[in-house]
Amino acid sequence: MDVAVLFLTFVAGLALGIPVAITLAVSSLAYLLLAGIPPVVMPQKMYAGMDVFVLLSIPGFILAGNLMNQGGITTRIIRFANSLVGWIRGGLGLTNIAASMLFGGITGTAVADAASIGGVMIPGMKKAGYPADFSAAVTAASSTVGPIIPPSVPMIIVGALSGISVGRMFLAGAVPGILMGVAMMITCFVISARRNYPRQDWQGAGEVVRAFGGAVWALAMTFLIIYGLLSGLATPTETAVVASVYALLVGAFIYRELPLRKVPTILVDSAVSAAGILALVGFANVFGWILVSERIPQAIADGVLSFTDNRFLVILIINLLLLFVGMFMETIAALIILFVPLLSLAQAVGIDPLHFATFAVLNLMIGLTTPPVGVCLFVCAGIARLPLAPVVVAILPFLLTNILVLLLVSYFPPLATWLPSVLAP
User: Which residue ranges does UniProt annotate as crossing the membrane (predicted)?
Assistant: First the structure.
């Protein structure tokens, strides 16, 4: 009965559109009260979930991304991407995707990518003659590359949950992220060619060189982060702090587009964003503790294994479950609640933890663009000033492409494990 109330309250909260963090808190508290467990357990488990050293890197990476975004990074990356692919049919759509691939290595979050890139690209694409629904769809779809290509906030969460090195997690996402971006660019080109979408004139190799020169300081940030982690010179938290200092210096003194008077506001905004994520982590940890105490994860694993122990089918079942969950639940909450039990199931059939972690994160990133709770869909539809329905229709080809990449990564482990084995043995 107590577990039924837990799930009913949780589902009702999601159905009513209540924020996931609050829904997790209310449903967990309802369970504790009905089960006769002292409510003091809630803050204890919240603190235990947040008291993980590697999670301190999340505020640092959020701050670094905000500083770089306010310091002129977005326009420079878009200019560089446009100089490379803008001359191809559907060039602004391709630029949108390429910019997301480059920009993702700085923010680490899909929503930040969708808002930053979308704020520039969606109005620009509409002005150039692209349909508004296509402009919003390609922006929302490409924003999911951000949390796959390092750095990545979801990868940090997974590292904290599983004990897998965050550096190895970052490397594991690089190849799938690039593959995902290239596949979406192919899809964008095919659609643009069939519908005769516009393209720009080739601006010459000189523009490529100039655009790269403008963006090189921004692009170097990803190298700084990865080198710091792989060299052993810095922990993820220390790397995030170094990245924030680097972002401040580049934005204020090299690009000179970040007025120092804006820094306090950026600090406050970053702190609010980080606090929201960590609160979600805390509430989700309480919810996850309840599930473990009720042996729900074991029941899931036993149920699946009683049905089949075939690795091919288990991977398919895990992907279907995560795709379904991603339609209704925020990524970080889904990871904290489901990752550990599904990892146990994956290991039971011989799936490498690093491989599983990679396709699990990739799966839930796709959920950011699926209705009814696809956050990136709402962000991009809002920028395009469209209702959600036409954007959902327009994004379907990109969703299909991303799911095909997901299946490829799921069933071909070297796509996730090869780079970490070479660079971080």
Answer: 6-34, 46-64, 97-122, 134-157, 169-191, 212-234, 240-258, 270-292, 312-345, 357-384, 390-412
Amino acid letter for position 131: P
What are the pLDDT digits (tens) for 176-232?
999 999 999 999 999 999 988 888 778 888 888 888 887 788 778 777 777 777 676
The residues near 12 (Cβ < 8 Å, ≥ 6 apart) are none
Q: How many CB atoms lie within 10 A of CB 388?
A: 16
45, two tokens: 């488990």
* Domain definitions of the chain by residue range: 1-39, 40-423
Largest Cα separation within the chain, whole Å, is 71
Task: Identify whether the C-beta of residue 296 lies closer than 8 Å to the C-beta of residue 70.
Answer: no
CA dist list (Å): 264 to 36, 64, 91: 45, 13, 38
- The answer to whether the Cα torsion of 306, 312, 318, 321 is positive or negative is negative
pLDDT number for residue 105: 53
Question: How confident is the model at residue 360, as a pLDDT?
Answer: 92
Between the CA of residue 51 and those of 86, 161, 162, 309, what are the distances in Å? 46, 12, 15, 36
Of 338, 285, 293, 329, the C-alpha closest to 50 is: 285
Q: Given phi > 0 = left and psi -120 to 50 = alpha, else beta, which region is 259?
A: beta
Closest CA to 101 of 124, 77, 123: 77
State the CB neighbour count (10 A cutoff) for residue 223: 10
Per the CB < 8 A criterion, the answer to whether 385 and 123 are in contact is no
Instruction: Identify the burial level of 201 via C-beta atoms within 10 angstroms of its C-beta, where 0-12 means exposed, 13-18 middle and 19 or more buried.
Output: exposed
CA distance linking residue 26 with residue 12, whole number of Å = 11
**Distance separating alpha carbons of residues 405 and 394, to the nearest angstrom:** 19
Lowest mean pLDDT among 210-214, 327-331, 419-423: 327-331
Q: For residue 372, say if its preceding peptide bond is cis, omega within 30 degrees of 0.
A: yes
Helix axes 331-348, 296-307, angle to 10 degrees: 50
* Residue 314, number of CB atoms within 10 A of its CB: 22
Alpha-helix residue ranges (DSSP H) falling in 256-387: 263-293, 296-307, 311-326, 331-348, 353-366, 375-384
Angle between helices 57-70 and 236-249 (to 10 degrees): 20
Predicted local confidence at residue 103, as pLDDT: 67
pTM for this prediction: 0.81
- Rounded to 5°, the CA angle 307-311-312 comes to 95
